[in-house]
Amino acid sequence: MTEQSGQSPALDNLSTESRVFPPSAEFAAQANASAQWYDDADADRDAFWATQAERLTWANKWSRVVDWDDAPFAKWFVGGELNVAYNCVDRHVEAGLGDRVAINWVGEPGDSVTITYADLQRNVSKAANALAELGLNAGDRVAIQMPMLPEAIYSMLACARLGLVHSVVFGGFSPTALRSRIDDAQARLLITSDGQYRRGKPAPMKESTDEATAETPSIEHVLVVRRTGAEIPWTEGRDLWWHDVVDKQPDTHTPEAFDAEHPLFILYTSGTTGKPKGILHTSGGYLTQAAYTHNAVFDLKPETDVYWCTADIGWITGHTYIVYGPLANGATQVVYEGTPNTPHEGRHFEIIQQHGVTIYYTAPTLIRTFMKWGEQIPAGYDLSSLRLLGSVGEPINPEAWIWYRKHIGGDRIPIVDTWWQTETGAIMISPLPGVTEAKPGSAQRPLPGISAAIVDEAGKEVPAGGGGYLVLTQPWPSMLRGIWGDEERFRETYWSRFADEGFYFAGDGAKYDADGDIWLLGRIDDVMNVSGHRISTTEVESALVSHPSVAEAAVVGATDATTGQGIVAFVILRNRPEGTPEAAVSELRDHVAKEIGPIAKPRQILVVTELPKTRSGKIMRRLLRDIAENREIGDTTTLADSAVMNLITEGLSNKP
Ligand code: 6R9
């Protein structure tokens, strides 16, 4: 651990929680998952995963389940060939399920579209024909920055169908962030929209993607979906309307089979340095684990369930649990475009009631927001269709878990707290509904087929009751295959910490309770988790110091009752800014939003004259966190100048 590391004290009391919720006999009797799976997977891991891979339709069968000879570069289902889009779309139509609703799309302003699997096949085929006509070839990269529109899903599946590698960039990311992702992947095409509906109003999108593509030589075309109908800037020759290029295409397209290890997508995520990492996922193993976990963890019954994952497709949760997992399993799902409080704070519950949602998967930050809005809001709706709830993105505190169970789940249905990462591709640690006795706040046990452990500094597993680093001890099918264009960083980030043991280092702290169940404690590196979004402290610091009036900046994630962590920045200004300090602070917040995106806007910026540093010059974020969280300042003996903390606290006029 570095000097700046340390767990959030708010999370330390998690393992004192002792309530247990056994599955109901009713649920257990109909559950997809079985306790036997743990034994099966332990007895023969490869055979277990081979069985899971049978969930998919392969054009050519694999000859070997996993090849780990060239670790940490894994190959799964060696020699197997499949088409990912065929598996998510066509095979359901061929099985006679063309009339089944794949997506009940709900627009923020109240418009809606019902998309059956047959519709999906036609729309994905048209999009694939259009991308092929634009001259894109298997292996080429396509960037997508779009709101939650059906066309975003068609685009992803059209890429998968043609073997193109998509890189979806969250709609809230700034032009600068989009540009660096396009450049890193050398994307040839950008797919976007004219605008988006956000908090009840049309908001621009094309203006900002134009700012990004002004300096991206690799981009040949920008394909634009019309959503808001706003007037937008247009570059003749480069820009193409989706309705001009896609609508006229034939609605059939024959998918080609690709190698199981053919790249499927890149998704950028924050690391401990300023530069985001392009996490690379491939086809066969990824889809196998997406389908398996979506079936087992959510207990999906495709004939009767209505599933809803509230994530954005710009994040891994949207990739695996809106697009690939549910569609590979032939699920019927709700996809919602907008914000949860537009036009009112009951919007999600209204959608659950209206569509008869049975499985609801969301993030703790939203649950805590619902808590703040009040239990009378969900109480005003009929939520009796729900039969399973899920949580993802950050540790869920027991109180939020209990509230979720009581006020949304009617005190009767299972909750699955699912731990995983962009890098793991799919769920890794989670209760199995109908099997596991749930403990509020614990992700509990690695899924059958997954091997995780909590180890100490030396890589030795800690005993029951002990805490340490979470590691993954065996390769898994949906594991990342690398960081795009940076093999060294891949080895260094994930595989060097426990190189002798060959463990994957997740970057999370965790504890075992007395029963050996796992409790996640949050990141142990300099990655913050704000509303389930990963943002690195370095990234925000770089954005701040890129402003001419900032001399130095240090950023910490402070515990926040709603968002998990909030970003608190300490800045030393270069020269006395003109105008009020408030104006300077507000300008800096806007500057960060412009550099990275609104999600990275600091909750607070504190102007200071000094920063606490060790003798080797490392900023002691631990001490800054004490200030940000209003605590007694901790041990300052390693400070180069012990008077600094007094200087900082005395100088703070706007103490948090
Ligand atoms: C899927 C996703 C990954 C980081 C991960 C951890 C935190 C996610 C969690 C959780 C505790 C859970 N995290 N799920 N912590 N309990 N159920 O969120 O991916 O955006 O890459 O974030 O999120 O810290 O390391 P990603």
From TrEMBL:
| SUPFAM superfamilies membership | Acetyl-CoA synthetase-like (SSF56801)
* Location of the AMP-dependent synthetase/ligase domain: 96-484
The family database entries (Gene3D superfamilies) matched by this protein are listed as: 3.30.300.30, N-terminal domain of ligase-like (3.40.50.12780)
Q: Which residues form the Acetyl-coenzyme A synthetase N-terminal domain?
A: 36-88
Modification type N6-acetyllysine: residues: K618
The record's InterPro entries line, in alphabetical order, gives: Ac_CoA_lig (IPR011904), ACAS_N (IPR032387), AMP-bd_C (IPR025110), AMP-bd_C_sf (IPR045851), AMP-binding_CS (IPR020845), AMP-dep_synth/lig_dom (IPR000873), ANL_N_sf (IPR042099)
Task: Indicate what this protein is called per its UniProt record.
Answer: Acetyl-coenzyme A synthetase
The record lists the lineage as: Bacteria, Bacillati, Actinomycetota, Actinomycetes, Pseudonocardiales
